[in-house]
Amino acid sequence: MGPRLMAQTVTGPLGAEGRYWDALVLGHLELPRCVGCGRWHWPAVWRCGDCGAWEHEWQPRRLAGEVFAWTRTWHPFAGAEGLEKPFVTVLVTLSDAPIRLIGVVEGEAVDLRIGAGVIGRIDRTRFGDAAIPAIRWSLAS
């Protein structure tokens, strides 16, 4: 399985995680699971480090989970010019796979805490001249 191209977002080969970006462009989340031993891999890999298998099955996953860590950013930096300051970034442990994904919190993060339930959606973020897919998290009700 060779690298994939992601239309509309990035030009050129993307490596093992190409399918992840392709899925986000289409509006959903897919993550790789080893066919040999069932281990989830993120970041994506070409070969499983546990069993040595080369084949991974990309499975749809829900954008839902719990906050593992978070930080509030007050200062601008390259690539984040399109985000209003301050903004909150969260690292989320997914509910249905032992994977953690990062994204920006939408709206006020007043009640944000470690362990809080969150629901995600896929949006776009400006990065230079490109509009790349990005995960936005909101506190679950």
If you had to describe this structure to a student in words, what would you say it looks like?
- The protein is built from one helix and seven strands, in the order H-E-E-E-E-E-E-E.
- It has 141 residues and is mainly beta.
- The chain has two domains: 10-61, no CATH class; 62-141, OB fold (Dihydrolipoamide Acetyltransferase, E2P) (Beta Barrel), CATH 2.40.50.840.
- It has a five-stranded mixed barrel. Strands 1-2 form a two-stranded antiparallel sheet.
- The radius of gyration is 16 Å and the shape is globular.
What are the salient characteristics of this protein?
single chain, 141 residues, mainly beta, OB fold (Dihydrolipoamide Acetyltransferase, E2P), 2 domains, five-stranded mixed β-barrel, two-stranded antiparallel ribbon, disordered N terminus
Q: Report helical residue fraction.
A: under 10%
Bin the strand percentage: 35-45%
N- and C-termini, Cα separation = 41 Å
Query: Over the alpha carbons, how many angstroms does the gyration radius reach?
Result: 16 Å
Largest beta-sheet details: 5 strands, mixed, barrel
| Domain unit count | 2
CATH topology of the largest domain: OB fold (Dihydrolipoamide Acetyltransferase, E2P)
Order of helices and strands: HEEEEEEE
